[in-house]
Amino acid sequence: MNDGRLDHLKRFYSILATLEQNIGGAKTLADCSGRMGWPKRGVYFFRETGESRSDTGPGPRIVRVGTHALKAGGSTTLWGRLSTHRGQRRSGGGNHRGSIFRLIVGTALIGRDGHKFPTWGEGSSAAKDIRGAEVELERTVSRVIGKMAFLWFSVGDEPGPDSLRGKIERNSIALLSNFKKATLDSPSPQWLGHHCDRDRVCASGLWNQNHVEENYEVGFLDDLEKLVEEMAKP
Fold first, then answer.
1. Residue 224 backbone phi and psi in degrees, to 5
2. How many structural domains does the chain have?
């Protein structure tokens, strides 16, 4: 267990405050498109309406951290990953089999609202009739995630498990996670994630499953701060 986690979280959120200034403010995913000059690769941090920090100062808490292309040779772009989470703008649908974020939000909606979607999360692909039966829930997931604001920054390293993007994602999740740790910035009683069927989501307070049980390396904050500072240079 890392000593000083509260102070490290305060520093983390201070760095994100600078990031928010450098990118001109958080964006809401439903309002974004691929024509907004996204960097090719990066890391993103999602917020959620009603989820506020309680121990590290005022402001919204981060509810999900993510990146992309962590396998050698991966070609997914930052916007490609974000758009998969958002879903299809025109139809309002989406593909939860291509986004673990969508999948676990869907399970929480099923748990909260008593939906019956027995095929949700089954298999890596599905026939047209199955996808058609899931459209209603896919649209609800799109509305929920589309309302979430997020911050992002560019990390132009090559795809691979040892990338700096992976290091920042992994350690950010481990720092934020309350899984088997002292609870800091706890989720609100109304947080949708309480209804998720994944114990790691419920216990961590994050829409993440990987890395929530890990300890973080405090040195990643230096990397994060340096990257954010570089964004401010002309």
1. -65, -45
2. 1
Contact 82, 44 (CB under 8 A): yes
Rounded Cα distance between 20 and 132, Å, is 39
Residue 57 φ then ψ, to 5°: 120, 175
Cα 95–chain centre separation:
16
Sheet containing strand 64-66, strands side by side = 27-28, 149-154, 42-46, 64-66
Are 120 and 85 in contact by the 8 Å Cβ rule? The answer is no
Q: Can you give the residue range of the structural domain that contains 117?
A: 5-231
Task: Supply φ then ψ for residue 45, to 5 degrees.
Answer: -135, 115
pLDDT, residue 233, reads 66
Give the ranges where the chain is alpha helix by DSSP (H): 5-22, 78-86, 100-113, 128-146, 164-176, 199-204, 220-231
Give CA–CA dist 81/161, Å, rounded: 17
Closest CA to 64 of 4, 141, 145: 145
Q: Which residues of the chain have pLDDT under 70?
A: 1-2, 233-234
